Amino acid sequence: MESWRDNRFVFWLLSLPGTFWISLFFIVPLSVLWIYSFGEKTGITDVAITWTGQNYGRVIEPVYLQIMWKSLWVSAVSTLICLLLAYPIAFAICFAPDRWKPILLLITILPFWINLLIRTYALLAVFRTNGYVNKAIGWLWNGIDWLFGGQHPFQPLELLYNNGSVIAGLVYVYLPFMVLPLYATVERLDKSYLEASLDLGASQLRTLLSVTVPLTMPGIVSGVILVFIPSLGAFLTPALLGGANAIMIGNVIETQFKSANDWPFGAALSFVLIYATFGILALRWAITARSKGVEF
Amino acid sequence: MSTYRPKFRPSRRALLQGTGAFAVGLTFLPRFSLAEEEKKLNFYNWDTYIGERTLEDFQKATGIETKLDLYADNAELFAKLKSGNPGYDVIVPSDSWIERLVGANMLMPLDQAKIPNMANIDPRFADAVFDKGRKYTIPYMWGTLGIGYNKKVTNGVPDSWKVCYDSDQYKGRVSLLGDARTVIGLALKYLGKSLNSTDPKDLKQAEDLIIANKKNLKVFAPDNGQDLLASGEVDIAQEWNGDILQVMGENADLDYVVPTEGTQVWQDTMAIAAGAPHPDNAHKFLNFILDAQAGADIAKFINYATANLAARKLLDDSYNKNTSIFPPEEILVKSEAQIYLGEDGQKLFEDSWTRIQAA
Q1: Which residues on chain A place their C-beta less than 8 Å from a C-beta of chain B?
Q2: Smallest Cα–Cα separation from B262: which of B335, B188, B324, B192?
Q3: By CB distance 3.0 to 4.6 Å, which of B99, B142, B143, B205 could disulfide with B241?
Q4: What are the tens digits of pLDDT across the range A32-69?
Q5: Model ipTM?
Q6: May I ask the CATH architecture of the domain B40-142+266-327?
Q7: Is the dihedral of CA B315, B319, B323, B326 positive or negative?
Q8: Which among B340, B354, B355 is the top mutation candidate for probing chain A, defined by the most A β-carbons within 10 Å of its own β-carbon?
Q9: What is the tens place of the pLDDT at every residue in B161-200?
Q10: Going from the N-terminus, what domains does chain A have, and what CATH number goes with each?
């Protein structure tokens, strides 16, 4: 490959649209928001930039820390479930016959063709008291119950409006983000390592934990980041699927920008979330730097 | 090895055409150059909140073509206008938001001489606490907050806010709204206080009450309590009367009641946004909305209580005597309108609301 230095003019020309895009739609608005986060509300629409730290001071009030802690654990659990589900899926796609692979990958990304809001509303129809899951379980239950004399009619399960339904919603929405990077690393994995491990007497489990997982770590790390970061900022899923205490940090930010009309505080909360994201990315960089052999 | 250099040499003509198109895109029509306003109007409204043929009728009557754009709540309207009016003429803000909008210079004062149909307004709404002398708004629809319930499941009529705030009678089968001022305000009402109270002691009492009762709630439903009720997810839904009326039409088991403690009486208004591109047309539109026939068509279609008295005279008893639309007078006396409490007062409610949801 030739170096970009041989063709500086073309390089700059080609980088122009991207640079323009990033500055106009990312750097400029975020800078404005960042400046806002040091402001004070002085009227209904007026914000004075006084470089005060009080907005960040408010962020560490117990109620907001509690909500952030909740956002963290909900995202962590969702990410873990995504990982456990996606790992076998990625392997299944890799070991499928070649002509099946494109179709299986297509099925994985198919939900992306439908708007997030519509997919989340669809979950409501699936999980609600008279929803499809309850209908299916009820049909099975009542069938078995009938065989034994019909003593215990089915009570519908409360599947919606709790933390479980929020986690289920997040897993459903972000699962493809975990499958795709895992698939990419598993596909590149040299299968002879696995054969070698088995030939040398390691059990299947040992091979998985000591050979497969370390070799696919780059995909795991990418997938975890791709799922964890958007889950942390989710607001639609908890708003629609969550119960009376489903609020996550994304919902608080939305409230501050809308009904509470407190942009400086909303901006400060947003930036705390952004700093947390940077922290996670730094962690990834640290992991990369330590593992010399595997390229992330 | 020869380096490949991509050739980028646009023809001169294409370049000129491109620049020309760009320049045209940058040229704005001078805003005040037209002697008479173009026959257009930009209307920013809630969903399903105008008559089925009202906009067509308006065009037939005046030749003005209306472009309709929709929003879902007042906060959205406010956020849209905050960074400058993007071109809306007529908007439909609610009571407690009017003073906030006026304070932020987002509304244009009305020229009442251009709205002769203001004579049709119900005397009860001729003036408003949030807009003294109707300088900025005309009343559009009004109604109540109350309890939608499933007759088959409840024991009698749940005509007290107790079922929402202080009872395990319908444990896990209750939904409240998702708005700070309304949910906390109605808890204040249950406690016998004003729903506009900013006394920290009252607010604390209401907050503690809601938090203690959270174990009996299913969900805070911002805009879908009626769907939860209709699908059997809850048996008690705190909701706007119009929303419950919609599902009552489809399911005879459902009913609506305004609790005896009194409630929040809401009022939506029509106003002209500051910087509206077609202020004359906007006045014509407001006048048309207050017309008897147009008002009756709207009220019949959306089933809310109209503030247009002349329109009510054209409608029959199935509308005028419907207690779900027009609540009994003795409850109205005990009820209040939600008013703007200043930014500090609003913040008290919003902060309390965050604590309630996190608890």
Answers
A1: 2, 6-7, 10, 13, 41, 43-45, 63-64, 66-67, 70, 128-130, 158, 160-161, 239, 242-247, 251-252, 255, 257-262
A2: B335
A3: B143
A4: 999 999 999 988 888 899 999 999 999 999 999 999 99
A5: 0.86
A6: 3-Layer(aba) Sandwich (3.40)
A7: negative
A8: B354
A9: 999 999 999 999 999 999 999 999 999 999 999 999 999 9
A10: 56-290 (1.10.3720.10)
